[in-house]
Design goal:
The protein is an alpha/beta fold. It contains 4 helices and 9 strands. The protein has a single domain, classed as Rossmann fold. Helix content is about 25%, strand content about 30%. Helix 1 packs across helix 2. The relative contact order is 0.20. Bound molecules: guanosine-5'-monophosphate. Guanosine-5'-monophosphate binds next to strand 5, helix 3 and strand 8.
Length: about 180
């Protein structure tokens, strides 16, 4: 792996410390509520599994898949639901867990869909936020880290479906894109 890494942004320890902090905040905020954690596949899968272990509440989990980037490194603006929720969300408190928010177009679209199903509330928890490129007015209740406008991978985030398994978040070397 070392020959692919340009720079490590967040190592395992840094990620886990932040996730513990987010989990404690969410636990406090959702006490007594009917919490349904919605993981956006595939990028948020590592994050959600670590996060829910740090939320000390009897929550439910569900998964949704949408297409946003394909194999390119820039947003297409086209959003399609590939897998919908299994659970009913009417009356529940929904926490969408996302890997990274860039333009915000993916989540704006998703939030509109979920709100039309009459949940009690819908909030966002994103591990990474790239605010420079925002194209929608999105309110992110919980954010792990802000990142600059560069393409990052690892800990669930991919380039052409690879590097999701790497336990830290990093920037790829340019040579990797050229291959
Ligand atoms: P948005 O709709 O906010 O522009 O795009 C969000 C989605 O784009 C994320 O869920 C993720 O799949 C993808 N994405 C945005 N920036 C990056 C990045 O730096 N690295 C990777 N691997 N995916 C990204």
């Amino acid at each position: 792996m070392d020959n692919c890494v340009k720079k490590v942004l967040f190592d395992e320890e840094t990620l886990q410390l932040k996730i513990k902090e987010l989990g404690a905040k969410i636990t406090k905020d959702y006490e007594g509520k009917d919490l349904l954690v919605v993981c956006i596949l595939k990028g948020a899968v590592m994050f959600v599994t670590d996060l829910v272990k740090r939320i000390d509440l009897p929550l439910q989990m569900d998964f949704m898949a949408v297409s946003s980037y394909g194999n390119a490194t820039e947003s297409s603006g086209i959003v399609r639901i590939l897998k919908d929720l299994n659970e009913e969300i009417c009356g529940k408190d929904i926490l969408i867990v996302e890997d990274i928010i860039d333009t915000g177009l993916t989540l704006s679209y998703l939030i509109d869909i979920l709100k039309s199903r009459n949940p009690n509330s819908v909030e966002i928890c994103a591990l990474l936020d790239k605010p420079d490129n925002r194209k929608s007015d999105l309110k992110i209740r919980y954010t792990g880290f802000q990142v600059a406008d560069e393409f990052v991978v690892g800990y669930g985030l991919d380039f052409a479906e690879k590097y999701r398994n790497v336990p830290y978040i990093f920037v790829l070397k340019e040579e990797v894109y050229m291959k």
